[in-house]
């Protein structure tokens, strides 16, 4: 079935990493999209749809204007601050942007009778896992203000669903990685804190070395284990979640990961293989707040959404990240 004409999807945070890849996926399926972003961390040139509004979720008037001006049927909500460490140092930014910003968005939606929202959540809602892989009903004990904002908003959405009939799906991402294989958009954070781009910057010579945060974890090689999921697979899951939501068949939350974990040392090894370059490694202390292992149980998303990640090998994920990085830094 082709998407209905004259109805638009509002993508907040559409200039960000996962938002821009999701817009690309929506456009390829024929959806009409309007992107909203305050460009605090996003990149205007990553927005591939024609309609773009530069606005902040804290600006209620601007938000209401967007809903008046465009025939919005559904919202996919990415706009948020996402750095765990920063959220510990400066929680106020997180509670305003992620919580108040989302409340403003929901109130603008309600004013116009918009009742579908796909929400960007995170594995950070779980905190230290009691079991691996992690199912959706695992206890939620977030360890950072960032994780708490995501959990709070899931709870707000559940209350709004009961009271006001808002339909929602929360997608809990594990470690988003990789870039658009066509090289049009990609991962670009400033400052960069994520493992794969940091390792690739070391391969490129943009950094002198990569520091491993902790080598004494209770894991086979002593380093943390993460479940890396390709951003294109995440984008695909948003389209599927929106479709299930419209059919009234969506669950409140889905884990998005491959179900396979890789250690930090393994990631560095794969980056060496893919790039064919030297990567200097320095072993450092643990980074506070890092759980030893985070691996998704993605069964529910596979069964209910019919979601099947295309990029199941770490090599493939790293290869798309590397192609993008070569482009970003002009083929050093
Ligand atoms: N790491 C290093 N050296 C680095 C950077 C990272 O050893 O220079 C390690 C980290 O200690 C961690 C792993 O690599 O063990 C992955 O770290 P990232 O910063 O890439 O990702 P996180 O797992 O910390 O964070 C991700 C998302 C967050 C989300 C979190 C859930 O980026 O948004 O998962 O816990 F909140």
Structure description:
- With 332 residues, this protein is an alpha/beta fold.
- The protein is built from ten helices and 14 strands.
- It has helices at 17-28, 60-69, 84-89, 91-111, 145-164, 195-204, 231-246, 264-275, 299-305, 314-328, and strands at residues 8-12, 32-37, 51-54, 72-77, 116-122, 167-173, 175-177, 210-213, 225-226, 228-230, 253-256, 262-263, 281-284, 293-294.
- It has a seven-stranded parallel β-sheet with strand order 3-2-1-4-5-6-11, sandwiched between helices.
- Strand 5 (116-122), helix 5 and strand 6 form a beta-alpha-beta unit.
- 48% of the residues are buried.
- The model has no long low-confidence stretch (mean pLDDT 97).
- It binds uridine-5'-diphosphate-4-deoxy-4-fluoro-alpha-D-galactose.
- Residues 82, 84, 122-124, 146, 175, 193-195, 198, 210-213, 224, 226, 264, 287, 290, 294 line the site of uridine-5'-diphosphate-4-deoxy-4-fluoro-alpha-D-galactose.
